[in-house]
Amino acid sequence: MKELKKFAVIGSPIEHSLSPKIHSLFAESLGIKISYEALKVEEIEFTTRVRQLFDEGYDGLNVTLPLKESAFKFADSLSDDSILCESVNTLWMEDGSICADTTDGRGLMKDLLNKELDVKDAKILLLGAGGSAKAIIPALLRNNPESITIANRTHERAEYLADRFSSPDRVMKAIPLSAEIDFEPDLIINTSSAGVLDQGMKLPSNIFSNQPSIYDLSYATSNTPFMNLALSSGSKNCYDGIGMLIEQAALSFQIWTNEVPDTDFDLELLS
Fold first, then answer.
1. How far is CA 231 from CA 61, 88, 93, 180, in A?
2. Catalytic residues, which ones?
3. What is the residue range of 91's domain?
4. Would you say residue 2 has pLDDT above 60?
5. Which one of 16, 129, 211, 240 has the lowest number of neighbouring Cβ atoms within 10 Å?
6. Is residue 46 part of a domain?
7. Same structural domain for residues 19 and 97?
8. From CA 149, how far away is CA 207, in angstroms rounded?
9. What was the pLDDT predicted at 196?
10. How many whole angstroms separate alpha carbon 219 and alpha carbon 169?
């Protein structure tokens, strides 16, 4: 049995990743020896590079943008959540097969619980209809919100996700991103890349009218642009996605090591 466990996060760009620091903190607290690198991998080289890394003895890989759907198509064995989300953020080898899971949705739910943001019976407005939205919708639905409405710049993509995850018991709605909303959301979750790229987002003028709770999947050293917009409009409970990042990382760490790390540590340790 190897004493040192080797892990990495792969994606492009990858220089900004906090995953090496997070997993190193997990390992240190549990007395486990690991190495954890951030490796730049382009989509065109995904298959070759991942096979090479496992051949070199890596015990597990985290997968970030833009490789999550490539990982889904590549894996030999998929978790139920991965199949629902059609994306993967965690890879490992088991009996010669490459296994895959996505911990994004479960990580989000853990952080929402930590922040006492209750999904049950809530009216949720989801901004964005890309891979990040698709990765969290199944976990949100499992926690029985009253409704989920998806708003996106490209209305067809929002409609696709709404149709994909709707059921006879719960019909999801899709609206254009700039359209006025005809309900008062309890929770707004921003999954849009505009929060990362600091691009302007044309939002409904009444989006913050009842001061909903705000959760931005993006994270930054200070407030994200979307959080600042919400705060300036009167919303008081505003959070970025650093807690989700830590919680989904902990779930990956548990898959690889069978150890449950403590996620309640000083965020200044990540700076």
1. 36, 33, 44, 19
2. 68
3. 5-103+246-270
4. no
5. 16
6. yes
7. yes
8. 12
9. 45
10. 34
* Residue 207: CATH number of its domain: 3.40.50.720
- 40-44 long-range contacts, CB within 8 A, separation 24+: 40/10, 40/11, 40/12, 40/13, 40/14, 40/15, 41/10, 41/11, 41/12, 41/14, 41/67, 42/12, 43/12, 43/67, 43/70
- Give the H or E element holding residue 216: strand 213-216
The residue type of 31 is G
Number of domains in the chain: 2
Residue 112 counted as domain residue: no
Q: Is residue 110 part of a domain?
A: no
d(CA 39, CA 76): 22
Q: Give the pairing type, strands 60-63 and 90-94.
A: antiparallel
Q: How do residues 28-83 score in pLDDT, each as one tens digit?
A: 999 999 999 999 999 999 999 999 999 999 999 999 989 999 999 999 999 999 99
Q: What is the pLDDT of residues 126-156, one digit of tens each?
A: 999 988 999 999 999 999 999 999 999 889 9
Closest CA to 75 of 48, 100, 39: 100
For residue 3, what pLDDT is reported?
78
